[in-house]
Design goal:
With about 230 residues, the protein is of the alpha/beta class. It has eight helices and ten strands. A hairpin with a 2-residue loop joins strand 9 and strand 10.
Length: about 230
């Protein structure tokens, strides 16, 4: 579903991403770990065609993103660290607007409310204007938008940033459900615990290179932390 082949990005002489080869199948949750500047967000932006690769290619559902920019975006939903919503609209109205924009006008008000509730937004917040929302509440609306879009792949950049532990756990459960439904997930995160609990696979990035990849079944929390720190020192 998500595939990178020799994906490379230069900014001048700085190599932000170095020959990334990666394949994420339906149902897999691949967590990219690494420090700021390691190449995680660059990878996601290349899949979204927000920036142009220096060489290599990114594919979604078998389609090269640079050649099929509109078609590939139909298959994915994106949740950035800072979810941008219309401040003067309520959470419900934002969800209604963005799902209609994605071509899903079939949802009833009750169904839209259910999406927001599943994402962890409280019932009383659903009809409040987003201008009064915390960062975590905006993240939950972003999650609901992604789920309602019925995307076959999710691209997530620090999606649990600003969420309290309860909301982060709810988010993990939601990702596991989507994984069970065959959704492919690429998540950039600093949260080693959440990566181990939520992911099926983890990859460690350093200086634009994917320096380690493994399944979460083959490593424990302590060993993952040790491996991560070893690569960060390198």
């Amino acid at each position: 579903m998500l595939e990178a082949k020799g994906l490379t990005k230069f900014y001048g002489s700085f190599k932000a991403l170095d020959s990334l080869n990666l394949s994420i199948e339906p149902g897999q949750v691949f967590c990219l770990l690494g420090a700021n500047g390691a190449g995680k967000t660059t990878t996601i932006n290349l899949f979204l065609n927000f920036i142009e690769a220096s060489s290599g290619e990114a594919r979604i559902h078998g389609l090269q993103v640079t050649q099929h920019p509109l078609e590939t975006k139909k298959h994915v939903a994106y949740i950035p660290e800072q979810v941008m919503l219309y401040r003067n609209l309520t959470g419900l109205e934002n969800l209604e607007f963005f799902t209609a924009l994605a071509g899903h006008e079939e949802y009833s008000q009750d169904q839209l409310r259910e999406f927001l509730t599943e994402a962890g937004l409280s019932a009383e917040a659903i009809d409040r204007r987003v201008s009064a929302y915390s960062k975590g509440m905006r993240q939950k609306v972003g999650i609901a938008i992604a789920v309602a879009k019925q995307a076959k792949a999710l691209l997530l950049d620090e999606p649990t940033s600003g969420l309290d532990p309860k909301a982060s756990t709810e988010f993990s459960e939601l990702l596991k459900r989507l994984s069970g439904e065959g959704v492919a997930v690429l998540m950039a995160t600093h949260d080693l615990f959440r990566a181990k609990e939520t992911g099926t696979h983890v990859g460690i990035m350093n200086h634009g290179r994917l320096v380690a990849r493994l399944t979460t079944e083959e490593i424990g929390h302590a060993d993952l932390e040790r491996l991560y720190l070893d690569h960060m020192r390198g």
